[in-house]
Structures are given as structure tokens and as C-alpha cells.
From TrEMBL:
GO terms for molecular function: beta-lactamase activity; hydroxyacylglutathione hydrolase activity; zinc ion binding. Pfam families: HAGH_C, Lactamase_B. GO terms for biological process: antibiotic catabolic process; methylglyoxal catabolic process to D-lactate via S-lactoyl-glutathione. Belongs to the metallo-beta-lactamase superfamily. Glyoxalase II family. Its EC number is 3.1.2.6. This is Hydroxyacylglutathione hydrolase. InterPro entries: Beta-lactamase_class-B_CS, Clx_II_MBL, Glyoxalase_II_hydrolase, HAGH_C, Hydroxyacylglutathione_Hdrlase, Metallo-B-lactamas, RibonucZ/Hydroxyglut_hydro. The lineage of its organism: Bacteria, Pseudomonadati, Pseudomonadota, Alphaproteobacteria, Hyphomicrobiales. PANTHER family: HYDROXYACYLGLUTATHIONE HYDROLASE, HYDROXYACYLGLUTATHIONE HYDROLASE GLOB. Keywords: Hydrolase, Metal-binding, Zinc.
Length: 255
């Protein structure tokens, strides 16, 4: 039986995610921006929270952990980097580790850049990538703790996953991201179509997530820093991938 995944808003623009295994009845939250909305969805579905899979230490991803742990006694899995203030951690994981949620298996990808401890969770059986603040739809996270080359390597690692995987990212930033991409890649038909779809979804208050990784590979300029067309568009023809990625990120920072 396939897992059930729920997507819902938390805080101002975070996504809350629950993944439920109907066989074992285990349910994991991917990050815990705040307890309230997560508990509401759990109650609505009649699910009990057994796990929290943490992607990185930022407050808007861990703020709900203490209350959820108190309520459900759930297991908290977090990145191996212990220099960060993630509360109530039971298990630390690193690159190549797997996490079980009942019959569901998540692979851990280390993706430093936004923070040094950032990890993503990949559920291959569900074709699901929980990319948090590394890869957004149409964008990528700000590079707070790592370097631009480090972030570019992390994005390239996620890009190795197949096109039919769905991306579940940390924030609803898609409309602004797609607008930024259009400013660089104005004649990209797939991007123009995605922009229309995003505008329609947002007009009725619907999330733009999940999105197919294959579509991101075609439309997200931050996954295309090694594409000569993108290098030319930012006037860095012949420069390195790292230079092009850095220029894209700098431009986005200022946008
Ligand atoms: Zn973050």
C-alpha cells in the first residue's frame, strides 16, 4: 500500500508535511515548524505521530518539536551535526543512512549550503524528495552557513534523482522564484507554463507543491548553473559552474 502524504501551511510561509504508512500506522512529520497545524491534521486523519524527521536546525523547522514530543512521545531524527540547537533528538543521521517509518524507508542526503547541517529525506518507494530549504520550486535556499560552490554541489546531488520524483520543499516561495527565473530565462516555454500554473494555484490559495523534479530541472535556473544558455544569460559565458551559480544566488539575494 502506498504511503499517504499531507501538505499544509505552517507559520507564515512554511509547509508542514506528514507521511503515513497505512500498514504499520506509523506517521512522520518532516520538520515541525509549529505544533498546532500538525496536530490538527493528525486529528483530522486519525493518525498518531510516531516520528519527526528534521532537516536542519532553523527555528521555523524545529519550533514545534518539544510540544509534539510531549504529546505523542515520538522519535526525533536529526542531522548528525551536534553543534546546533535541535531539541529532543533521539537519533542522528548522516549521508547514506536510512530511516524507517514503518514499512517506509527514507534515504538521507547531506545537502550543506543553506546551513551546514542540512539534510534531505528521499522516500524512493513514494518517489518523494523532501528538500526543505535546499531546493525550492523555482529556487534554492539562501546560503547562510556554507559557500556557493557547496550549495551548488548539494543541488547537483538532488538533481541526480529521476524526473518522476516529486519535490516537497520547505517554503511556499514559488511565485517569487518563478518570476525571478523568468527574468533570466524569459523564452523558456516550460517555465512560462509553470508560471501560469503557479499563478492559478496561488489565486485560489492552493499550494504549488509538490512539483515534479523533471519540471524543476527544466525551469529552475538554480539547477542549471552548468547550462551554457544560463551562463550566457547572466553574462558569464565560459565561466565556471560555481561562478554562474554564485551570480544567480547574488542576483536573487538582491531581488
Ligand atoms: Zn532554513
Amino acid at each position: 500500500m502506498a504511503a499517504e502524504i499531507r501538505v499544509f501551511p505552517c507559520l507564515s510561509d512554511n509547509f508542514g508535511y506528514l507521511i503515513h504508512d497505512p500498514q504499520s500506522l506509523k506517521t512522520a512529520a518532516i520538520d515541525a515548524p509549529e505544533a498546532g497545524p500538525i496536530m490538527k491534521v493528525l486529528q483530522r486523519e486519525g493518525w498518531k505521530l510516531t516520528d519527526i524527521l528534521v532537516t536542519h536546525h532553523h527555528a521555523d523547522h524545529v519550533g514545534g518539536i518539544a510540544e509534539l514530543k510531549k504529546t505523542y512521545g515520538c522519535k526525533v531524527t536529526a542531522p548528525h551535526d551536534q553543534g546546533t540547537a535541535i531539541p529532543e533528538v533521539d537519533v542522528r543521521v548522516a549521508e547514506g543512512d536510512t530511516v524507517q517509518v514503518g514499512a517506509l524507508t527514507a534515504r538521507v542526503f547531506e545537502t550543506p549550503g543553506h546551513t551546514l547541517d542540512h539534510i534531505c529525506y528521499v522516500f524512493d518507494s513514494e518517489l518523494a524528495l523532501f528538500s526543505a530549504d535546499t531546493l525550492f520550486s523555482g529556487g534554492c535556499g539562501r546560503v547562510f552557513e556554507g559557500t556557493y560552490p557547496m550549495m551548488w554541489q548539494s543541488l547537483k546531488k538532488l538533481r541526480t534523482l529521476p524526473d518522476d520524483y516529486r519535490v516537497y520543499c520547505g517554503h511556499e516561495y514559488t511565485a517569487a522564484n518563478v518570476k525571478f527565473c523568468l527574468g533570466i530565462d524569459a523564452n523558456n516555454e516550460a517555465l512560462k507554463k509553470r508560471a501560469e500554473e503557479v499563478a492559478q494555484l496561488r489565486a485560489v490559495g492552493k499550494p504549488t507543491i509538490p512539483v515534479l523534479l523533471g519540471l524543476e530541472k527544466k525551469t529552475n535556473v538554480f539547477l542549471r548553473a552548468d547550462d551554457p544558455a544560463i551562463a550566457a544569460a547572466v553574462r558569464l559565458k565560459g565561466f565556471s559552474e560555481d561562478d554562474v551559480f554564485g551570480e544567480l544566488r547574488e542576483r536573487k539575494n538582491k531581488s
